[in-house]
Amino acid sequence: MTDTPQRTRPLRVLAAMSGGVDSAVAAARAAEAGHDVTGVHLALSANPQSFRTGARGCCTIEDSRDARRAADVIGIPFYVWDLADRFREDVVEDFVAEYEAGRTPNPCLRCNEKIKFAALLDKALALGFDAVCTGHYAKIVTRLDGTRELHRASDLAKDQSYVLGVLDDRQLAHAMFPLGDTVTTKDEIRAEAERRGLAVARKPDSHDICFIADGDTQGFLAQRLGTAEGDIVDETGAKLGTHEGAYGFTIGQRKGLRIGTPAPDGKPRYVLDISPVTNTVTVGPAGALDVTALTAIKPRWCGAAPAGPGSYSAQLRAHGDETEVSAEVVDGGALEVSFTAPVRGVAPGQAIVLYDGTRVVGSATIASTTRATAAAV
């Protein structure tokens, strides 16, 4: 097997440069490998701020300038493409709508699917580029028969394959991840950037949700959805308190419940269910969060869809642990998943990504769960 960056034929590569250190080093490695690289910064905000807030946010004017300076040092052409309208429709509005419906979305996964490897890739191919290069930590392996597979990064501590699990065959055929084989610390990546003369070497990483620069997700949602007082109840339906909008809660949440009445057993309570129809949030003990099975919809396969039932490992969060599952695609295309051991905090709207060893099989959106001590929600 050979990894994509080791191809002998030089490619025309469009390098997505966010203004951070990872994408800058990825572009530099692609150019150093002999590819014909052009850098592009995606302007995703209609009103970009001049400066980011600490390590939060991205896509600022500062980031655009940092990306341009990095491209100048690498010696590659550089452009800024305005995808703000597409980003607003496909990522931001989807994010708000999902929370309004009582689900918990992953905007980074949606951005990779709809923006970086749909809108960006389509435009790149139309302009004659062969591949899109990003700073993600993941590997693409080309098998002897020419098929391509998405795998976890060599350094599992930095692996980002979870948010790339939405990429299909066509997108994988035109993707390049030069950092995927790197087994180094982030400090070593920064040291490499310094050796290359890249000023972003010591720039802090962006965290949280890029379009919520201050990190206040609840405040962001409140501005768009308004406030609507509703009840916080226990499993019996007894009212324990009130809230200003069910969208401000996620399954498994413990903090910020503001319940004045203590639980009979004195133990913490967690969000068990969110009902946007009644604007009700149900809370209860941690054990009531145990999930034994789930149904996921809208699967996207990194290759052929699985045939028949199979055993896999699954990841339910971007930085979550793997868990053993059995899974099968049923009539209608839904994915039915059973856990070997119960897991907690699984919320509709999240993505489940299936793995066969290090290979990414595919991703699907969780629609419902079956709990060990309660009916499906």
Give the low-pLDDT segments.
Answer: 1-7
Based on CA atoms alone, the radius of gyration comes out at 22 Å
The strands making up the biggest β-sheet line up spatially as 13-16-15-14-17-18
Head-to-tail CA distance between termini: 43 Å
Order of helices and strands: EEHEHEHHEEEHEHHEEEEEEEEEE
Structural class from helices and strands?
alpha/beta
As a percent range, the share of strand residues is 25-35%
Q: Overall 3D geometry?
A: globular
Give the total of beta strands: 18
Overall mean pLDDT: 89
Q: Helical residue percent?
A: 10-25%
Main beta sheet strand tally, sense and closure: 6 strands, antiparallel, barrel
The total of helices stands at 7
Secondary structure topology:
Layout: E1 2-3, E2 12-16, H1 21-32, E3 36-43, H2 61-74, E4 78-82, H3 84-100, H4 107-126, E5 131-133, E6 138-142, E7 148-152, H5 169-172, E8 175-176, H6 186-195, H7 217-225, E9 230-233, E10 239-243, E11 270-275, E12 280-284, E13 291-301, E14 310-315, E15 322-329, E16 335-343, E17 351-356, E18 359-371
Helix pairs in contact: 1-2, 1-6, 3-4
Structural overview:
This protein is 23% helix and 29% strand. The protein has 377 residues and is of the alpha/beta class. It has a six-stranded antiparallel beta barrel. β2 (12-16), α1 and β3 form a beta-alpha-beta unit. The longest helix is centred in the N-terminal third of the chain and has 20 residues, at 107-126. The protein starts with a strand and ends in a 6-residue tail after the last strand.
What's the short version?
The chain is 23% helix and 29% strand. With 377 residues, it is α/β, with parallel strands linked by helices.
